[in-house]
Amino acid sequence: MPTIGPKTAARLVFHLLNRPRGDADALADAIVALKERVQLCSRCYSITEHDPCPVCADPQRDASMICVVADSKDLFAIERTSAYDGRYHVLGGLISPMDGIGPSQLRVRELVDRVATDAPAEIVVATNPNAEGEATALYLSRLLAPSGVNVTRLAYGLPIGGDLDYADENTLARAIQGRRSL
């Protein structure tokens, strides 16, 4: 499993071996239930137990904004901030020519259709600041330009509580370029 190395895997195995059989059965049942109950939202393509998902079903959310993320874990990270109250669109990955992933393997067409149908005022591209995230953001910006929608990108910069001398050159450069008035 991702992020579980050999030592952690061994700890998990030994933990399960030292637990009653019922605990292993309950874990297996939970995994099966997860696969049976979790589905993709038909509007934003996030994972959910109910279609539409709670975000899409909430009439209080700002329908004039759609935040585009690579996957559901990014959506959940943004939701934890309580700083965004718009809608979402989950692409299902990022453009990565090295991995053979192009726009046709992502939910780009569905995003274009949503923009045409819902006419949002703003698309917030919230992809990671790496080569794949930047390529995806640039592609979406150019693709959506004819629609007239305002395409924005998350700001880059220094983390709160960070020290300048620990920041890498790219992060510091982005922070300088993205400065704002006080």
Going by CATH, the architecture of the domain at 61-153 would be 3-Layer(aba) Sandwich
Number of strands: 6
Please give the alpha-carbon distance between the first and last residues: 45 Å
SSE class:
alpha/beta
Protein architecture, described:
This protein is of the alpha/beta class and 182 residues long. It has a domain at 61-153: Dna Topoisomerase Vi A Subunit, Chain: A, domain 2 (3-Layer(aba) Sandwich), CATH 3.40.1360.10. Helices cover 42% and strands 14% of the residues. The chain contains 7 helices and 6 strands. The protein has helices at residues 6-17, 21-37, 54-57, 72-81, 108-118, 131-144, 169-177; strands spanning 39-40, 47-48, 62-69, 86-90, 122-125, 150-153. Strands 4-3-5-6 form a 4-stranded parallel sheet. A two-stranded antiparallel ribbon has the order 1-2. Strand 5 (122-125), helix 6 and strand 6 form a beta-alpha-beta unit. The mean pLDDT is 93.
Keywords:
single chain; Dna Topoisomerase Vi A Subunit, Chain: A, domain 2; 42% helix; 4-stranded parallel beta sheet; two-stranded antiparallel sheet; globular; 182 residues; alpha/beta
